[in-house]
Amino acid sequence: MLNDLAAFYATEPIWFAGSVFLLGLVIGSFLNVVIYRLPIILERDWRAQAADLLPSTADATSGAAPLERFTLSTPRSACPKCKAPITALQNVPVVSWLLLRGRCASCKAGISVRYPAVELATGVLSAWVAWHFGFGASAACALLVTWALIALTGIDIDHQLLPDNITLPLMWAGLLAAVVVGPVAGAALPVAPKDAIIGAAAGYISLWLVFHAFKLVTGKEGMGYGDFKLFAALGAWLGWKVLPMVIVLSAATGAVLGILMIALQGRDRRAPMPFGPYLAAAGWLAMMYGDSLLNGYLRISGLKH
Length: 305
Prior knowledge:
The structure is a single chain. This protein is mainly α and about 300 residues long. Helix 2 crosses helix 5 (about 115-135) and helix 6 (about 135-160) packs across helix 11 (about 275-300). The chain contains 11 helices and no strands.
């Protein structure tokens, strides 16, 4: 049966893309949970570690009530205002938000539009990946990268944090895919093991050098170590050759959006901006259209006729 389904998807790309779109909606719902809960879990872990290392911190909090167990799956999702549990029917991606008109079923408090936006974006981008790569190992790898980049983008926007819990497994998965799957003809990923290893190392070291050079000149930290690890992960999946294009795209996008936010929203120029979303967007575009973007740039610049 599985062989028949694989053969069907291989010959019917629109059905494959449609199925992946529905899967992407479900994954998007889970990514909303990751974006909201993972930073809280990490903060609790860091506080617990600090309490172990600093007895005074533990003494100061010894009288506090023990924290409720908090993971990606527990406690059950609930309205942040009235604490009413969210039922399964109220948690259908996008559809439930529309039927509830963006409000809690119990207290009518507003539900952020970002939840259905993440779900819909994940569904659309997943279907896009499926249509672009077709049924096969490359599509599976690209979906994994896409979902990880969406989660990292959401967390970095909210907390200016790129958790090791996502960036490091993403990097190791890219290296493993290079060994187990290897290059696929006509696809951007996975790459050959040598390219993946060099890509991971070059991605990390290059931004590490930029970070320390900037700090040496200005006395300020221009980015975080999570950016190094995300760039290393992109290098592991896409190889070292695309890294210059990714960094140029991400820097250009960040500069343009930064200028627009300063001009239109009056954003403080000294306020830090997360770089992870720009890296993620540039990496995704390179994964999907790296060759086309590179050839277009070479033609525009006159380096290729």
